[in-house]
Amino acid sequence: MPGQALSTRQPEMSVHERKRRHRKLFWLFWLFWLFWLFWLFGVLALLLLMLAADLLQDRFGDAVALSGPAGCTGTVTKVLLYAAVAFLLDQGLRNFVWDVAYPRLTGTAAPGVLQGAGSAVIYTIATLVVLTSILKLDTGAVLISTGLVAGVLGVAMQNTISVTV
């Protein structure tokens, strides 16, 4: 109509859309700023620990045995790095797959069991990588026994799962 002004207001978002948007923004903020900030503080703390160990070793000589903390800082850093990567992968999976892509494809929210299984797989892989590559432990026996237990539970629960689904 000629005498009416056009409305430039955007339609209001629903509560779910606002929560999803804020969750994505928080995750991106965590990824780009807080993660690097915590990593930087962790590296600075490790460097200060190594510097203090060297200063104490120079000051007191062999009376102070500091080979433990100074020698394990690289291992601790690698373990923390793998834990941080696993955490970021888990949060990315939750925020982008389970909260956005899955509801868009299926029209329903992702089941909590599926979300928990995805998180469990990510953290299990990170734990196994740390145990085998960093700590040099043999995880073959653990994997075999876990596979056997999962197989037995799968066969035992087959009827229950088929009725539920």
List the helices and strands and how they pair.
Layout: H1 15-60, H2 67-106, H3 112-134, H4 140-156, H5 158-164
Helix pairs in contact: 1-2, 2-3
Report on this structure.
This protein is mainly alpha-helical. The chain folds into 2 domains: 120 residues, no CATH class; 27 residues. It contains 5 helices and no strands. The longest helix has 46 residues. It is flat, with a radius of gyration of 25 Å. The N and C termini lie far apart (55 Å). The model has no long low-confidence stretch (mean pLDDT 75).
Features:
about 160 residues; mainly alpha; 2 domains; 5 helices
Q: Report how far apart the termini are.
A: 55 Å
Specify the helix fraction band. over 70%
Number of strands: 0
Indicate the multimeric state.
Answer: single chain
- Enumerate how many helices there are, as a single number: 5
* Unreliable spans: none
Radius of gyration: 25 Å
Summarize the structure.
The protein has helices at residues 15-60, 67-106, 112-134, 140-156, 158-164.
